[in-house]
Design goal:
Layout lengths: L2 E6 L8 E5 L27 E2 L6 H12 L4 H4 L5 E11 L5 E6 L7 H10 L7 E3 L2 E17 L1
Antiparallel strand pairs: 1-7, 2-7, 3-6, 4-5, 4-7, 6-7
Length: 150
């Protein structure tokens, strides 16, 4: 029987949990900052906060995955019909580099290895921005490989 493989990404193809961390030094400050006169401590303000994102947003990420994720891997490794969910965690560094990519589970048939590979080969992202600084963003994404049998 021929197996067909389709890729589905859970929860609108872009399920991320993001955590940003304020840098301890100001070596990556950018021009846009908010200055409050020290004499006026009663004034309240909020800094710009932006999550790390893939260039081109959700559609860019989906296009990247469609062009780079080899959805045939579990079929080539003779996976039986079923869903194979891989949970990937990674960090978008202050310069947009993807680092610390890890699969937190391995459903087998090469799925975890393929998911890690595609994240590690990702182009730079737009880094997170918080309180006038670029920050590291901790991310989680689930990728589901669906193997259908005929």
């Amino acid at each position: 029987m021929t197996k067909l493989l389709t890729l589905s990404l859970l929860a609108l193809l872009y399920t991320f949990s993001a955590y940003s961390q304020e840098p301890k030094t100001s070596d990556t400050t950018i021009a846009k900052t908010t200055n409050i006169p020290k004499s006026d401590t009663s004034q309240k303000y909020s800094a710009d906060e932006v999550e790390a994102s893939f260039p081109g947003g959700n559609q860019g990420w989906i296009k990247y995955l469609n062009e780079n994720l080899n959805v045939e891997v579990p079929v080539m490794l003779r996976a039986p019909a079923g869903k194979y969910v891989v949970v990937i965690t990674f960090v978008v560094d202050k310069d947009g580099s993807i680092v610390d990519v890890n699969a937190h589970n391995n459903p087998g048939y090469g799925t975890a290895e393929e998911a890690v590979r595609v994240f590690k080969s990702s182009p730079k992202w737009n880094p997170g921005f918080q309180n006038g600084h670029f920050v590291k963003s901790y991310r989680t994404q689930r990728i589901t490989f669906q193997v259908n049998g005929r």
